[in-house]
Specification:
heterodimer, A: 114 residues, alpha+beta, Arc Repressor Mutant, subunit A, 3-stranded antiparallel β-sheet, 3 strands, B: alpha+beta, 4 domains, 29 helices
């Protein structure tokens, strides 16, 4: 079963993907593939929606892009995380954790006081 | 956060580049995906990749939103979209911008004139504290003359220290900056020693005139205007040096700040003593009327009450024999009826206030008409766009967004109109300045500055919203489904649009009618004024003015004047020559002198016949008709004779023949015998009835100032005649300076300049208003015919004759035009009182004007409907049906 990516989560996925690639910058297609393979194909992005997200993050200063060449010598823009991007990823992961725990607590209430 | 802002700005700045980058990225992504799909054996990899990617167009749009500044960016998009739409319709855009430019340009120019004259503060310290003390005189003493009689004058006000912190006086006269070759006529402010302290203005260099300079024994000093210092003295360090004014040398004590020229555009200032003496006015060869001003320390009402009180007490305490009436009694009456004090600004602005406000209102109405017309055009445009707007609404644009886009269009149009308008405003202003330099120009120079530009921008935005809102609401109101179905232009909303248009065009006609009535009143007044009998036959009369130097003795002056006139009379083409001390209508302001005539009627009391000095031949040269008796002649010898005007004859000798009768100056001196009676001559202004006038012979009363007058026989070119006049003076004395060499008709023309300018402007605005309104009528009629061609086709098919159709279209417009014309006439009738003081010789409700204007307007408007109506007549039923 395929599901749409919840709004805002896409940013987190992109940041996480770029952080996971350690020092190697990725271009758009690589990011899309990475997200798809990591998410185990549960999330299928309307692939193009990656690009408005990238533009938003560029404006926010979380990522930076530089034009370079692919292995078969095609022009592509390679994105990497900035320092601000790293901080944002940490913040986002923390708040994601809090939300996840809160949801888990609601869905599986543990018996109180016993 | 600031980093985000700059990154956004950088992206917006390089929008095209960023968009290209984005598209390249997306292209690569789709290509790589397609290749990957092909490797997996996808049957149609390109289509598959495109489907997986999503709509590039929408995604690009979303990405751009990420760069944007939210609402500011949306507004920018609206404006770009509006600009694109307007570019697609250049004719439509140009006509709207043109109409608005006329309205905004005219209003802006008039605003700057009003701003300079009435809104900007006077260039003095705390100007609101300055008042004019009405009718307050300055005592005049003659060395060795009788001691001053007690009176109420400036010295009395100076003593009222509890209400006035300073009381000063100023007068204005002409003086020559003597230069061997080219003497220059300057305007001199003659001011009391405390004048500058009272108005609170300091010199830019050196010092201003101080109280010590006003002492009768002080040495001659002069203060220069910045502009004169720059133009005549090249801005050199001149303080402490002397300059020649008339024949005397004056020490320069200071330079006033740039732009300061009070009173009445002064180039130099020289001191006036209190009491004044013959020496005070000697440089001007005659008395100058002065104005007394004061700085009040109490509220205006208190100062007014105290002054009235002081006036009454002083006048009632004056010594007089029982029942004797003094000259000052009448002055007191005037003070009590008109007020003793008056704010300085209202005195300075008085005579131009009405004209300025009427002109500003006129341009404002013109702008309203322009707005109504533009609204109309936009309504027609909106009706034809109804379908497009409906489609956009259906595709998801909110009503707010569509409204915003329509408003963006109208504001863009009005800003364009304002830009063009402001660029033509200097032309209007230039015209204003050349035709009415002295009267309209306020103390602050009339100019286009930031205030005026701010005013124009405000006008642009307000007008843009004013004329844009109605059509925009109308266009977005209707049901989109109905609009799409109807194909636009035929539905119920179209008929609603036509109703709005008829209301607007009716309003335009009404407003144009109001302006046209104003224009009619001004034109009729002007017609009356130029047709007035001035008492002179001024055609082909040349004049020049000159002042004899002080060193030239009286006998020499008389000899030289005689020689100049003889030389002129010898010239072929000159039929008469003479001289007078003061040219009529020159705007100098003359002297009235009280005369005593035994047996004169009681009504002649308090009359001050105007004192004039003329040579034999003056009446012939000026074309002033001799009604009784004779002109001066060489046979008059030194006897005291006078020629009087008809008005003077009527005043003092209503029953008898005045020739041979005598009168006295004041109450003593030798009697003057009346030798002739001439026509009354307009002299203070074309609009004021001439009062009694008396001419004394130059032979015994020659003054230093005089004007030479020569009448050509009509065959001589003006330039030749004027050159002959100058040459005659130079031949007699090469060193004699002459000025104001001009035709008498130009003297008269100059006296009418302000009125001519007012009349021209109001007439022009009225004409423009009518043209715009008539265009509006045409547009509405044409629009109605175009939109209803189907209806007319059907009517024609059902048997309506062409005459029926004409009546149908015409009838609709007749109602609109009639309502507009009637409303306009009614408004003009009600508002006519504002024109009081601007009309001359006619009533502000002149029946001729009120009868003609509606007729002309109605005819013009009906003519404008005829063209489209004829088109309706020619509608071919078959073609209309086929179109559908």
């Amino acid at each position: 079963m395929r599901e749409d990516i919840p709004q805002g989560t896409l940013d987190l996925l992109i940041l996480r993907t770029l952080a996971g690639a350690s020092d190697r910058p990725l271009h758009g297609f690589e990011i899309a593939n990475a997200i798809e393979s990591v998410s185990g194909r549960v999330f299928v992005v309307e692939e193009g929606s990656l690009y408005p997200a990238l533009q938003r993050m560029l404006v926010q200063g979380w990522i930076a892009g530089e034009w370079g060449r692919t292995a078969d010598n095609r022009r592509a823009r390679y994105y990497h995380l900035t320092a601000a991007g790293r901080r944002q990823l940490e913040r986002a992961l923390k708040s994601y954790d809090r939300v996840r725990q809160a949801i888990a607590a609601i869905l599986n209430p543990s018996p109180r006081g016993t | 956060m600031t980093g985000t802002f700059w990154r956004r700005l950088a992206l917006l700045w390089s929008r095209n580049r960023a968009t290209a980058d984005l598209e390249e990225e997306m292209r690569l992504h789709r290509a790589l995906r397609a290749e990957a799909m092909q490797r997996h054996g996808h049957p149609d990899p390109d289509a598959g990749a495109a489907r997986r990617f999503g709509s590039s167009l929408r995604l690009t749009e979303e990405s751009r939103e990420a760069w944007g500044f939210g609402s500011a960016d949306a507004a920018w998009q609206d404006i770009r979209y509006a600009a694109r739409r307007l570019r697609q319709r250049p004719g439509f855009t140009a006509s709207i911008v043109g109409i608005l430019a006329l309205g905004i340009g005219a209003t802006t120019a008039m605003f700057s004139a009003v701003d300079a004259a009435m809104l900007r503060p006077l260039p003095f310290t705390r100007p609101e504290q300055l008042v004019v003390l009405n009718r307050l005189g300055i005592p005049f003493v003659r060395a060795g003359g009788p001691p001053r009689a007690p009176s109420f004058d400036i010295t009395s006000a100076m003593a009222m220290r509890d209400v006035f912190s300073g009381v000063a006086a100023y007068a204005s006269g002409g003086i020559n900056l003597a230069d061997a070759e080219h003497p220059r006529r300057l305007k001199a402010g003659v001011v009391t020693g405390n004048f500058f302290a009272t108005i609170g203005v300091q010199a830019a260099r050196g010092r201003t005139i101080a109280p010590a300079d006003g002492e009768a024994t002080a040495s001659r000093v002069v203060l220069l205007s910045w502009e004169l210092w720059q133009s005549a003295l090249g801005g050199r360090d001149v303080i402490g040096t002397t300059i020649p004014l008339n024949e005397a040398r004056y020490e320069v004590i200071g330079i006033m700040p740039r732009g300061f020229s009070f009173p009445s555009a002064s180039d130099v200032w020289i001191p006036m003593s209190v009491p004044s003496t013959p020496a005070t006015f000697e440089p001007f060869r005659g008395y100058l009327p002065s104005t007394v001003i004061a700085r009040i320390t109490a509220p205006l009402e208190v100062a007014e009450a105290r002054m009235r009180d002081a006036w009454q007490r002083a006048v009632s305490n004056l010594p007089r024999s029982p029942g004797q009436k003094l000259g000052i009694d009448e002055t007191l009456e005037r003070v009590l009826s008109d007020g003793a004090t008056q704010p300085l600004r209202s005195t300075l602005v008085a005579d131009r206030k009405t004209a300025l406000l009427v002109l500003l209102a006129t341009t404002g109405v013109l702008l309203l008409i322009a707005c109504a017309n533009v609204t109309n055009l936009l309504l027609s445009y909106g009706a034809s766009r109804a379908r497009e707007l409906a489609v956009r609404t259906v595709l998801g644009a909110t009503r707010g967004r569509v409204l915003r886009q329509l408003l963006a269009e109208s504001v863009l149009l009005s800003v364009g109109g304002a830009a063009v308008g402001v660029s033509i405003a200097p032309l209007v202003l230039g015209a204003l300045r050349t035709v009415m330099p002295a009267r309209l120009a306020g103390l602050a120079p009339v100019q286009l500055d930031l205030r005026v530009l701010a005013f124009a921008s405000l006008l642009a935005v307000v007008t843009g919203i004013l004329f844009g809102l109605w059509p925009a609401f109308g266009a977005t109101r209707g049901s989109s489904v109905a609009a799409i179905k109807s194909g636009g232009g035929h539905g119920a909303s179209a008929s609603g649009t036509r109703r709005s248009q008829r209301v607007l065009v009716g309003a335009e006609i009404a407003l144009a009618g109001v302006l046209l009535v104003g224009a009619g009143l001004m034109l009729r007044s002007f017609e009356r004024l130029v047709a007035i009998d001035t008492g002179m036959q001024s055609a082909s009369v040349a004049t020049l003015e000159m002042s004899f130097q002080r060193a030239v003795r009286q006998e020499t002056r008389i000899q030289r004047l005689a020689a100049i006139l003889d030389e002129l009379r010898r010239q072929p083409g000159i039929v008469a020559a003479g001289a007078v001390n003061d040219l009529p209508l020159r705007g100098g302001g003359g002297i009235g002198i009280s005369v005593t005539v035994s047996g004169a009627p009681k009504s002649s009391e308090n009359t001050y016949p105007r004192y004039l000095v003329a040579t034999a031949g003056y009446f012939d040269a000026m074309g002033i008709a001799l009604r009784q008796g004779r002109d001066f002649s060489s046979g008059d010898g030194t006897g005291s004779v006078a020629v009087i005007s008809q008005s003077m004859a009527r005043t003092y000798w209503p029953e008898t023949d005045p020739v041979g009768r005598t009168f006295l100056f004041g109450g003593d001196g030798p009697p003057f015998t009346v030798i002739g009676v001439v026509d009354d001559v307009r002299e203070a202004g074309m609009e004021s009835e001439p009062g009694p006038q008396m001419y004394l012979p130059a032979r015994t009363n020659l003054d230093a100032n005089l004007a030479i007058v020569a009448r050509g026989d009509g065959t001589m070119a003006k330039a030749t005649l004027l050159a002959a006049l100058t040459r005659a003076v130079r031949n007699v004395d090469p060193a004699q300076a002459v000025y104001n060499v001009r035709m008498m008709d130009d003297v008269i023309g100059a006296s009418l300049a302000a009125r001519r300018a007012n009349t021209t402007l109001i007439a022009l605005f009225g004409l423009l208003a009518v043209v715009i309104a008539v265009l509006g009528v045409y547009a509405v009629a044409a629009n109605a015919v175009a939109q209803r061609s189907r209806e007319f086709g059907i009517r024609a098919a059902l048997g309506a004759t062409r005459r029926d159709l004409l009546r149908h279209v015409g009838g609709e417009m007749v109602l609109v035009v009639a309502a507009g014309v009637a409303a306009g006439a009614a408004i003009a009738w009600g508002a006519s009182r504002v024109m009081t003081g601007m009309v001359y010789g006619i009533s502000v409700r002149d029946p001729g004007v009120f009868a003609t204007v509606p007729l002309v307007l109605a005819l013009a408007a009906m003519a404008a409907t005829l063209v489209p109506a004829r088109r309706a007549m020619r509608v071919e039923p078959v073609e209309v049906m086929r179109e559908e």
